[in-house]
What does this fold into?
Amino acid sequence: MRSTQAALLERVKELTCLYGIAQLAARHGKSLDELLSEIVGLLPPAWQYPEIATARITLDGSAYGLPGMDEARDVQKAEIVVARHPRGTVEVAYRQERPRQDEGPFLKEERHLIDAVARQLALIVERREAERERSRLEHQLRHADRLATIGQLAAGLAHEINEPLSNALGFAQLAKKCPGLPPQAQKDIEKIEPACLQARNIIRKLLVFARQTLPERVPVNLGRVVREGMAFFEARLAKDGTELVLDLDPRLPRITADPGQLHQVLVNLVVNALQAMPGGGRLTIQTRAQEGWVHLVLEDTGTGMSEEVLDQAFVPFFTTKDVGEGTGLGLPVVHGIVTSHGGSIAVESKAGEGTRFDIRLPLENATEKAKHAAP
It folds into this structure.
């Protein structure tokens, strides 16, 4: 009877442990670190000698443990396997010697328990990572939808403004040719013309962002685009004290693209990088080919961007620069050009640590792929 009661008590302790883990896992608002720190405290009471037991959970190199693991005499361990990849361990140990049982001083039921705990932890980690990935994808989807909506509005707005703006520019150029204009009128007309040209340039950028202008597709050597583009910045780089590091793959295959638009992408990103390094720094530009794509990577050691600014980076007219220093169209135009070429752009940045842009362009043009796939 005593033996049966003792065995029953052990089973109750084990079930209480598993139930406690399930309850903690169901709570929202707790980080994974907080969750593991609380779960490790549930383990020692479920073993046969809780008064001398201690425990530790290790996940991806981070340890969550109770005191006494360093003086442990006997350790029972189970591996945490997430998606068939070992990610850590669960350990329960005794700080003092105890009579030998099925597995050292541990019972075979405790082996089943620690294995069950490891499986539960694997499920918790997998669920948390799936939720985080879903949240990231939802954020990307909302961002893409917002960009598409803004692009449609920008295209409609650009077309509506373009006609009256062209009329204003044309009439200003005609008025300038009229004989006998007063000097003040001549000066005023000369101010109208560059203002109209600047506005038209902004509209052209809007159309590029909205992908309303078709790029010219020709074979392009991306390394040559970089070298020719950076020649325009030699004087400014020297003046600002900025070190330029070029890591261009000499065997980089050609891509089908618009060289003028790629030049615009390079210039916009380089100008942003230089503005982020007013006291000088290092600008690294790299090209490489990888798995059917060509990569153009620009990395600076400038001021970087906060997470809030990074979320708005490709939104038209969003800028952190002072009035007159930027229109907020540079990165949206870059995004429009890259996506119109069938590519993608990824950005990593931390405030005070610099920014890294990775532009990926297909070796075979997306339009050509569609043609080949057509019946």
About this structure: Confidence is low (pLDDT under 50) at residues 323-327, 365-375. The longest helix spans residues 108-176. The first strand starts at residue 53 and ends at 59.
